[in-house]
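Tokenised fold entry reproduced for absentees:

. . .
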Amino acid sequence: MHILLTGGTGLIGRALCANWIDKGHRLTVWSRQPAKVPSLCGAQVRGIAQLEELDGEVVDAVINLAGAPIADRPWSDKRKALLWASRVGLTEQLLNWLAQREQRPSVLLSGSAVGWYGDGADRELREDMQPLGNDFAAQLCAAWEETAQRAEALGIRVVLLRTGLVLAAEGGLLGRLRTPFRLGLGGRLGNGQQWMPWIHIADQIELIDFLLQHDDARGPYNACAPLPVRNAEFTRALGQALSRPTILPAPAFVLRAALGEMAELLLGGQRALPSRLLDAGFNFRFTHLDVALADLLGH
């Protein structure tokens, strides 16, 4: 199978490439720096700067994961524009290219996030629910999904990946938290009661492959473990995994003063459940946070 990836040099994209190379698939990554793709994604992976480089070639599936990191810096107007362009704008480019092709892929798996729901408080969030908030993250995810969904009109099966917090040994959330927690500077955010829908990177990769292979899979799927935890529980579990205290909370007013609007991304949460994946028969390897952290942190 020839698979085209956007966002292929990111955390999930690199892991997908490693997985699919082992399975014998042919991989192409659309990237702003295509020369770096082989070193980041694997020597067998081809990097392209323009989608037109694939004209005349068969593409069987598209995995659309591109997007600038949403929590790296406060949401100024300029940052919001970049976040929007890197997700919605890029997906529009992809759709325009697909519409012009005579041969089209059978499936588009497109990124989204549990932020689509908004701050869900204590409600259990399943894929058949309506959004609960209208903050910037929710608006961004909604527009991202609506743009990708237009591929259905082109005869392409569309799967929407509402991903939670991806836990990996290198990079991602744990990459940002490991150093402060090891220094004993970790603590809950706000009151610590907000829900954190997490997923082990191994399960994230397997569920994407699962949805790729199942021809009846379409629409939104919550890509997160079946047992989300509150921020206070996540904080304790990470501290225990690293054998460090977690006694320095970050008060909500401090986060709001420092991060502005983006603070609500940290202070709100989603008790998202992977109902459709479980109904489809997907088996998670890591359902409990302490087991996932022990696997990833080597304790």
The longest helix spans residues 77-100.
